[in-house]
């Protein structure tokens, strides 16, 4: 898997821009159906997906109850974004302060899950971008189990393969399949550059119609 290197100016990219670029490239099912809640408003995470899947389970290994999660987080590479699929489980939390600290140490750039987080004030204090269905303080031990790492998962109706590019921000989560990432990124970067010009023209008093006719961007 090729490491993802952001280019100068990529900090301007948003999920809205990626969504429009995905549409332009014919990829119309790559945005999660529901917005995931950021622990800190204004957070943004962008990186390659490191996927994991949880299922309900009362099984337990008393000697190593968190072994699968420890192995998963220890295997994170710099620039990866943890993506946890739980089938929207409300049984427990799946990630907290110490997992976030370990992910930061490994070079991870954030966490996205359709399950719950806990220790949210402490995650916020770490400055770690975290997006989730909701928050709940309950431990997942003997309630849920991590059964697969680095496989394809589905969250919010969007298929996410390990290594796909994922961006999360206040608006939602967008997924760029690896096979189309160069095409989509090129379209998104072009749009980001053009939107700066469009914004200046609108603020200067240009009519919305004339700006649309000139740039074909809204």
Secondary structure blueprint with pairings:
Blueprint: H1 15-24, E1 37-38, E2 45-56, H2 67-74, E3 80-85, E4 93-95, H3 97-106, E5 110-113, E6 116-117, H4 120-126, E7 130-132, E8 134-135, E9 144-149, E10 153-155, E11 158-160, E12 165-169, E13 172-176, H5 181-203, H6 208-215
Parallel strand pairs: 2-3, 3-5, 4-6, 5-7, 6-8
Antiparallel strand pairs: 1-7, 2-9, 2-12, 10-11, 12-13
State the end-to-end distance. 35 Å
Classify the fold: give the CATH topology of the largest domain. Answer: Glucose Oxidase, domain 1
Give the name of the CATH superfamily of the largest domain: Ribonuclease E inhibitor RraA/RraA-like
* Name of the CATH class of the largest domain: Alpha Beta
What's the story with the biggest beta sheet?
8 strands, mixed
Which structural class fits the helix and strand makeup?
Answer: alpha/beta
The radius of gyration over CA amounts to 19 Å
Total count of strands: 13
Shape: elongated
Percentage beta strand: 25-35%
CATH architecture of the largest domain: 3-Layer(bba) Sandwich
Could you tell me the mean pLDDT? 95
As for the number of domains, it is 2
